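We modelled the chain as a single entity of 231 amino acids. Its sequence is:
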Amino acid sequence: MAKIAKKRREALSKFDKNKVYSLADAVQVVKDITYTKFDASFDIDVRLGVDPRKANQMVRGIVTLPHGTGKVVRVLVLCTPDKEDEAKAAGADHVGLDEYIEKIKKGWTDIDVIITMPSVMPKIGALGKILGPRGLMPNPKAGTVTMEVGKAVSDVKAGKIDFKVDKYGIIHSGIGKVNFTNDKLVDNAREMMSTIIKLKPTAAKGTYVKSIYLSSTMSPGIQVDAKSLNV
């Protein structure tokens, strides 16, 4: 039998794994059982009653968390010269076009989000095999292919995130850091769930939100009572 580490054993002793907690209580429990020495991410996992294999049941959306994610997001804007100043003024970390396309072809992906313009997408299409597996490919549905590059950069820096259901029907997303106040984490979780609920596909039958769990980096998951979200 695998040996349970001391810290994990201690964490498991601080909550009832068979209990469904209110949102506020679950946030506190996650904080109580987080022992990482670094600034841990605070995550939410939502299992939905959808079949992602069917196009009419795919759930994908964008949400701007009211208190941000707490993560420093590195943004690359691939744009024409007339948009460079706008991107830089909005806080983009890297701005350019052909020189960055060449860097990416050589393996450079030291970024978190790529924002571009519709007219530039044909050039970026050739990078699909590099950017796709890393989740970096710009997408109009995610707001990362737009003429308003400055606004897109500002939104991403402010805590805008793109999420989608995986092949198992689960949405997994970071919604802050453990060092956020409880109120901020509750607000972010409610905003996330409100957005997910609004995206319910008409083709989805039965229970839409099957379960909600909160956790931090390396912590056990804590189940949340959906009714306590008040969304």
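As a brief sanity check on the tokenised model: The chain has two domains: 18-69+160-229, 75-158. The longest strand covers residues 41-48.
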